[in-house]
């Protein structure tokens, strides 16, 4: 029970109390205006909520580490995860907002007027969210494992218990403002250490301006060590893999069921466009800082840790070796730690760096609280996507349309608990590092949903048969490529498992198009609904004519 | 409800689509375009980093943010040009979103 442990735990508990407090406060207030269906969350705040929901353990814990270890090749994650917001905001969000359904399966089921399509979309949502949540639980495991100085697997079990309780009781209502708070906690926790490191290394408080010189300095050190330069393009993966990964993350971002849901809480198509813009601005505060984080921590490791004798290593190394994510081995038995003798997992870089840079107990504790906020807010959004797919789209709409409100809520809670526990068991021995697991979820979303949502919104001739065939083929192609590449060393054009969506998405698009063309067109009513999405709310498309609502005042 | 000329409604849609095509072209150039030519572009330096690294870490992100805000502002302008009233939009869309 040292000071560090108490500080970290105290900050985590305090931030949790804040989230639960906000959830309770909002619930009480909402009962009165429960039936005013339009929420009308202002775009700036909704942007923050989207950012909190969106930035997961992969962004917070994993990304800087990935850039540090992969160098330039890690930037595919940075560009992919931000560039996707353009596809989402330009091509899907406003139209989906006007259509006015609550979940992705609900949109697909109603747009194509097909319960089969609804069922497949619900199953797809559950699979994607489930894969994604494994990454979150594995992230919570890293944080809690370090906190209690126990193996990450045990930390994961604690995380599963916390997240199950949190999501089943707290996460069902009033989640928007909780996510705003979680965004603020995580962004402050991310920026403080990177600003301090910038001051320490370059005496400039603005890391975004200063880390460029550190990057170029590292290029020199790398050349001296005889390893490939940090910023050298495509040193650790092929160019095709870089492009494939970036594509999957972008298309996946636009089609992630739990993110699309957040665009329904704004009032209009216009508000959806502004929400997307604000969301990316808030997200980029972190994404612009991650490469700085990566550069600074690699620089400190290169210059201050490598080269030391094994008998004189800083204290932080020991606690990270205990979690099983850091390995230091004297390969050439000279008693000195060399750069190539450090094996550091992507997932611990952000958590370990404040300790490496000796930033003090408060900052280290804050980072732990921020990481938990990131894992928790995304896990909350994902669990709601899973439970609404099952309880609303499958159980209520398909299996038991007479189910009472209470029974549906019970089914939703049970599905949350089951999903968390099963994902927790998988996360005990995660099948990859956090960013990699999360990238699979994006590849699957890119291949299952993006082409179908895109065609469903923009092409009135797209029909149920096409959508069903497209979703199934996209999911199968991506899923089998991931498995073949991960476990059987299969690869095409140098593309590995994380880039699987580059094959799945075009297959899905083509199959949807061809099958739609070969089968009868959708009903006139459905085609008119799609035409209607071209125009703002005030214009209505009916019987081949466009009508405009006059303001009532 | 007042019927409006189909040509007017089509003009609205075409204007929006034309803008989106321009934005997505720029999006493609700063992300995929720069990656495809990463090696030749690494020869000059911006903000202390080789250009390809700068674009991946900072440049493309900034362009993305600008494009999203430009889209929001331009779309508002087009709405105004066609006499769309946001208050009326809000009134019409309320009841179509589900609380959660």
TrEMBL record, chain A:
Keywords from the UniProt entry: Membrane, Transmembrane, Transmembrane helix, Transport
Topology of this chain in the membrane: Multi-pass membrane protein
Gene3D superfamilies xref list: Sodium/glucose cotransporter (1.20.1730.10)
Tagged with keyword Isomerase: no
Pfam families linked to this entry: SSF (PF00474)
Family annotation (CDD domains): SLC5sbd_u4
InterPro entries, sorted: Na/Glc_symporter_sf, Na/solute_symporter, Na/solute_symporter_VC_2705, Sodium:Solute_Symporter
Protein family membership: Belongs to the sodium:solute symporter (SSF) (TC 2.A.21) family.
Name this protein carries in UniProt: Cation acetate symporter
Organism: Desulfuribacillus alkaliarsenatis
UniProtKB/TrEMBL annotation, chain B:
Parts of the chain that traverse the membrane: 20-39, 51-70
Highest taxon listed in the record's lineage: Bacteria
Keywords for the protein's UniProt record, in alphabetical order: Membrane, Transmembrane, Transmembrane helix
Ranges where the Sodium symporter small subunit domain occurs: 10-85
Coiled-coil segments on the chain, per record: none
Keyword Membrane included in the entry's annotation: yes
A Pfam family annotated for this UniProt entry: DUF4212
Protein name: Sodium symporter small subunit domain-containing protein
Origin organism lineage: Bacteria, Bacillati, Bacillota, Desulfuribacillia, Desulfuribacillales
């Amino acid at each position: 029970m040292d000071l560090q442990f108490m500080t970290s735990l105290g900050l985590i508990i305090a931030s949790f109390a804040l989230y639960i407090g906000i959830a309770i406060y909002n619930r009480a207030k909402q009962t009165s205006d429960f039936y005013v269906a339009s929420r009308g969350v202002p775009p700036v705040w909704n942007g923050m909520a989207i950012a909190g929901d969106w930035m997961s353990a992969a962004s917070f814990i994993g990304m800087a580490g990935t850039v540090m270890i992969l160098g330039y090749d890690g930037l595919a994650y940075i560009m992919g995860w931000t560039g996707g917001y353009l596809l989402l905001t330009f091509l899907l969000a406003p139209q989906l907002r006007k259509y006015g359904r609550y979940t992705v399966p609900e949109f697909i089921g109603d747009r194509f007027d097909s319960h089969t399509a609804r069922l497949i979309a619900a199953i797809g949502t559950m699979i994607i969210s489930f894969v994604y949540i494994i990454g979150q639980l594995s992230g919570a495991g890293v944080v809690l494992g370090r906190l209690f100085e126990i193996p990450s697997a045990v930390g994961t079990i604690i995380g599963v218990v916390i997240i199950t309780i949190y999501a089943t009781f707290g996460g069902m209502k009033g989640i928007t403002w909780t996510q705003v708070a979680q965004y603020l906690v995580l962004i402050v926790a991310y920026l403080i250490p990177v600003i301090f490191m910038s001051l320490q290394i370059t005496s400039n408080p603005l890391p975004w301006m200063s880390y460029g010189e550190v990057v170029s300095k590292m290029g020199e050190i790398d050349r001296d060590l005889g390893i490939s330069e940090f910023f050298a393009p495509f040193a650790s993966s092929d160019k095709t893999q870089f492009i494939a990964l970036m594509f999957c993350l972008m298309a996946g971002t636009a089609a992630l069921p739990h993110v699309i849901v957040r665009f329904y809480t704004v009032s209009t198509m216009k508000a959806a466009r502004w929400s997307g813009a604000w969301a990316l601005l808030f997200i980029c505060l972190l994404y612009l800082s991650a490469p700085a984080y990566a550069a600074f921590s690699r620089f400190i490791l290169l210059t201050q840790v490598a080269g030391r004798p094994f008998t004189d290593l800083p204290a932080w190394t020991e606690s990270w070796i205990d979690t099983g994510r850091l390995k230091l081995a004297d390969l050439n038995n000279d008693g000195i730690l060399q750069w190539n003798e450090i094996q550091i997992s992507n997932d611990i870089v952000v958590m370990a760096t404040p300790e490496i840079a000796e930033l003090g107990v408060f900052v280290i504790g804050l980072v732990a609280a921020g990481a938990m906020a990131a894992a928790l807010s995304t896990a909350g959004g994902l669990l709601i996507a899973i439970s609404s797919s099952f309880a609303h789209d499958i159980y209520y709409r398909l299996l038991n349309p007479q189910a009472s409100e209470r029974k549906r809520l019970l089914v939703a809670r049970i599905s949350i608990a089951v999903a968390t526990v099963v994902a927790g068991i998988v996360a005990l021995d995660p099948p990859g590092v956090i960013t990699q697991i999360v990238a699979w979820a994006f590849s699957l979303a890119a291949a299952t949903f993006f082409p179908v949502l895109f065609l469903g919104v923009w092409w009135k001739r797209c029909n149920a048969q096409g959508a069903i065939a497209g979703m199934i083929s996209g999911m199968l192609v991506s899923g089998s490529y991931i498995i073949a590449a991960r476990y059987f060393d299969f690869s095409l054009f140098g593309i590995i498992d994380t880039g699987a969506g580059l094959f799945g998405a075009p297959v899905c698009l083509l199959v949807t198009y061809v099958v739609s063309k070969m089968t009868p067109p959708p009903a006139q009513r459905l085609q008119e609904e799609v035409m209607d999405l071209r125009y703002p709310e005030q214009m209505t498309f009916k019987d081949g004519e466009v009508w405009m609502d006059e303001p009532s005042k | 409800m007042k019927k409006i000329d189909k040509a007017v409604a089509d003009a609205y849609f075409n204007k929006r689509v034309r803008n989106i095509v321009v934005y997505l072209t720029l999006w493609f150039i700063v992300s995929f375009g720069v990656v495809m030519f990463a090696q030749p572009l690494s020869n000059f330096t911006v903000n202390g980093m080789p250009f390809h690294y700068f674009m991946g870490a900072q440049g493309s992100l900034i362009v993305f943010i600008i494009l999203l805000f430009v889209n929001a502002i331009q779309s508002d302008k087009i709405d105004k040009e066609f006499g769309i009233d946001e208050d009326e939009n809000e009134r019409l869309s309320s009841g179509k979103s589900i609380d959660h």
